[in-house]
Amino acid sequence: MTEKNYTEAMTRLEEILIQLEEGKKSVDELSELVKEASELVKLCKTKLKTTEEDIQKAFEEA
Amino acid sequence: MHNARSISELNQLIQQVLDSELDPVYWVIGELSDFRLSPQGHAYFELVEKNGNKIQAKIRANLWQFTYRNVATRFESSTGTSLKNGMKVLAQVAINFHPLYGLSVNVKDIDPSFSLGERARVRQETIDRLTREGMLQLNSQLPIPGVIQKIGIISSATAAGYGDFINQIESNSGGYKIYHKLFPSLMQGNDAVKNLIQAIDSAEKSKDLLGLESIVIIRGGGAQLDLDCFDEYELAVKIAKCSLPVFTGIGHERDDTIADMVAHTKLKTPTAVAEFLLSGFREFEERLTLASRRMERATKLKIHEQSTIIQQFSQRLQSYSRNRLIQEHDKLNSWLLRINTSSKNMLELQQLKLENLEKGIRQNTTRILTKETEKLENKSHWLKQLDPKSILAKGYTRTEISGTPIHLTKAKVGDEMTTHTLAEKINSTITQIEEE
Fold it and tell me: Record's family (chain A) (predicted)?
């Protein structure tokens, strides 16, 4: 499975949130969802950080 | 028999009558015809009276050597021309009857003033006729090129004027080249007019082949005599109607000839014609030089102007480019700033969104877990409450028949029951059942 890009990750996070808000998921599924969400959050944070660094670098060069 | 005489006697009689009845001399007007000079220097001719072209009367005339020399010299110096056929003269004559040669006149004198007047009258008639026929300005209306380089020369190859003319055009200081072709012609005498007309015809026929631009008629140097052919009507018409401009250099001191009058341009001498042609070259060269200088000046000026304009353009372009670069740089900086800000904002927004999502996920997870825990606790509580021990602890007991709770079975008398208390198991047998 290829790594998601930021937009895809955010979309997935939103889906997870909606699913959690709806409260239809069992406790057994909850763990998996939270684990997935945590991975996605980590991914998005990394991407944001990388982007910020890129921007910083780009402006330093400009 | 008749009183017959011999011819000699008759002639003698005639001689006597003539001598007695006639004056010694008479002034008569007649036209010279069949004029010829003998080797001895005598002139023989006929004096003719004409009505139009028709001869009405004529008489033989003799001009003996001595008289001829005097008369001819005086005539030539007065009129500028020699005695010749077709000339009307006022002559003083003595009647002469010779037994052998018959009747003739001996010319004693010729009055040049009559011939001058006569010639002037004829000349004026010719001019008037040419004027009426619109011939005088005809040839002069032809355009001439600024530089005339190809000419047809009508002259006598042996004429001094021709030699001078050729010498002048060929050894000019400017090194100008004039192509010339001679169309030879007699330039004086009885056949001159016919000859000149033929020469003009020949030149016109060669015009296209040789690219001739003009015809020059030159006759120069030497005696100022026998110019009458240049006053002839036929020659004047030929010159006037010539398709090429005709320049004359007939070389004379007296008034213009009629040929001069009908020519495009009249010049005094062949040398003057050569000078006129060469002056065209010189003027053209001067104009060229002048034009060249003007062009050079104008070009330099134009180049200078254009250089200035280009320099101005260059400066404006540089200035504009600098301004533009500054503008673009500013714009870029502003964009960079905006991009920076926007990207930061976006990142922050995303960060917030992510945090919210994370928070939402946490909260919901917690909520779910809490809810589930509560449910679990409730269940546990209920379970605890439902635990038989806790009921038994309150003093309640549980009775079963054959392992089935008593309220779930039909008790009968005699059935054995097991009663559970918190601490004990009591077996009993049903002895009586009463309805409640």
Answer: Belongs to the XseB family.
